[in-house]
Amino acid sequence: MSILSLQIFFPMLCGALVLFLPKINNKTLWAIALLVQFISFLMGLFLCMHFDVLLPTIFQWEERFLWVGSYGLFYHIGVDGVGLAMVLLTSLLSMIIVFLCKDRIEKGGKSLVFAIMLLQTSLLGIFCAIDLFLFFIFWLLSLVAMFFVMVFDVQRNTMKEAKVFFVQGFASSLLLGICFLSLLVMYKQEHGSLSTSLVDLAEMKIPITKQKWMFAALLVAFFVRMPLVPLHTWFLSLLSRSSMIGRVFLLALFITTGTFGLVRIALPLFTDAMLVFAPTVLTIAVINMVYGALLAWRQKSLINWLGYLTLSYTGFVVVGLFSFHEIAITGAIFQWISYSMAIAILIFVSDATDQGPEEIHMSSYAGMARLFPAYTFICVFSLFAILGLPGLSGFVGQLLIFIGTYQSGVYDLPAFLLFGMALTLLLTFVSIFNVLEIIFFGGNRVLQQHPMRINQMTKLIPMITLLLCIFYLGVQPSALLSLLKVHRLEPKVSQIEAIHD
To answer: Minimal CA–CA distance to 335: which of 311, 308, 313?
Structure first.
């Protein structure tokens, strides 16, 4: 087993072993889970430190062998720069979640630990899979694991929302499976053999008529997970009922798999169809941005505010990807990684003031700046990173998206897109400063009504770590950009250049 396979399956194997351990006390269970996450993070660091950006190959740490020969199914994994960045981010956030959620893990027991480990393995598998059938298995596994994480968190009764999430996610995944099966049949007809390897399929010429309906199925599956209006109905209800474990996985990692799918699968396989659908998708993305920013402005609950803010920034990422410009695509990837770190910090904020599943107004926690100045500093700069303050990572991603979109010539839409993005940033600016005023610099009611639970300095360490990453990528973006620009499966360059001329 290669180091990359070990990185993927190590959490799940350890989680399965935990299930069969004799009865152990809750503190030992948490310590074992944290140790597993720490080892997994070290393996991610090892992969990153030994990744050579100068190699001409698309994927590194590649492993391929025939899995089911009669059907052309391969166990084919590897990482490019984007996949490696997501592997490291997943390992880091998973470790932080386990570290901060000691009480919940102790109450959830072995079942919750296994669900977390299973979800981590499925996410890592998605980011490393090169074979489409393997990608689909990890895709379904992540859906099941996310459902288990929501259900096994005993502090919340999320069964109703989890069932809606699972049904919608599974239904959309069937479309993804149909698309992959169609690609397998087409490859058989063209080459006389079977293969589900993305590298092999990328060399196949797919007629535009077939590309359209296959890409439409792919788009629905990815848009449900991202999520994008109007396929977002499961998202907000599940978010409001989840605990910190579910929220961080959902907002910072799970929904990014939809965006990653567009980069890994749609761009190299369905370039023509993406060009045809681009005006419609870009219009939906702008609506998504403005819709999310407007409703975020009106929210009184911090969790709902984070949910609508995420909807808005998902639109930003989609605009970057469908601008068909290398700078904008790189900016979109940079933006979602930056946003994942910033939103994780803010979820830790919400958990610090969380009193239960009921909705509590942000005004109930006014005056936090007086009580926790260091804590406030971390949160304020996380919000500024989302807004795009120069010197923070969010600024780099947004700037690249703006530049790439302006230079793009996709159906003469840049002016419309730039206006939509500018309006969204203006609404987000107002919304963020409204939140800052209410929560941090308002009255002093928090001391009397809701004493803060996060009063241990050790719980600030993970947030400081993420904030340092945000600062570092803001002043030294080349550290990540050098990874994102590594050779990867690209769209058909000639066709994209045609629309730029």
So the answer is: 313
Question: pLDDT tens for residues 386-399?
Answer: 888 899 998 999 89
Domain encompassing residue 378: 270-485
Number of domains in the chain: 1
Residues whose CB falls within 8 Å of the CB of residue 147, separated by 6 or more in sequence, listed in order: 162, 165, 166
- Do the domain assignments include residue 274? yes
**Closest alpha carbon to 246 in 308, 154, 109:** 154
* pLDDT, mean of each 10-residue run, the chain (501 residues): 90 92 84 94 93 80 79 82 93 93 84 94 95 93 93 71 88 91 85 80 84 91 88 83 86 92 89 87 89 85 86 89 87 92 85 52 68 79 89 90 78 69 85 81 52 59 90 92 71 48 47
**Angle, helices 271-297/302-322, rounded to nearest 10 degrees:** 150
User: Quick count: other Cβ atoms within 10 Å of Cβ 23?
Assistant: 6
Distance separating alpha carbons of residues 340 and 317, to the nearest angstrom: 12
The conformation of residue 390, written as its DSSP 8-state character, comes to T
Give the number of C-alpha atoms closer than 13 A to the C-alpha of residue 351, restricted to the C-beta side: 25
By three-state DSSP, how is residue 58 classified?
A: coil
Q: Count of CB atoms within 10 A of residue 55's CB?
A: 11
* Per-residue CA distances from 377 to 345, 380, 399 (Å): 12, 5, 24
Residue 82 corresponds to which tokens in the numbers above? 């984007």
String of DSSP letters for 129-173 = B-BHHHHHHHHHHHHHHHHHHHHH-TTS--HHHHHHHHHHHHHHH
Instruction: Please name the helix (run of DSSP H) or strand (run of DSSP E) that holds residue 62, with its range, or none.
Output: strand 60-68
Burial group, residue 497, by CB count within 10 angstroms (0-12, 13-18, 19+): exposed
Per DSSP, 51 falls in state -
In a domain, 171, yes or no: no
Rounded to two decimals, the pTM is 0.91
**Number of other CB atoms surrounding residue 382 within 10 Å:** 24
Amino acid at position 324, single letter: F
Residues ≥6 apart with Cβ < 8 Å to 304: 236, 239, 240, 359
pLDDT digits (tens, 9 = 90+) for 301-358: 788 888 899 998 898 899 888 888 888 889 999 999 999 999 999 888 777 555 444 4
- The tokens for 433 are 């400063």
Asked, as a colleague might, if the bond just before 230 is cis with ω within 30 of 0, I would say: yes
Residue 70 resides in a domain:
no
- 314 lies in some domain: yes
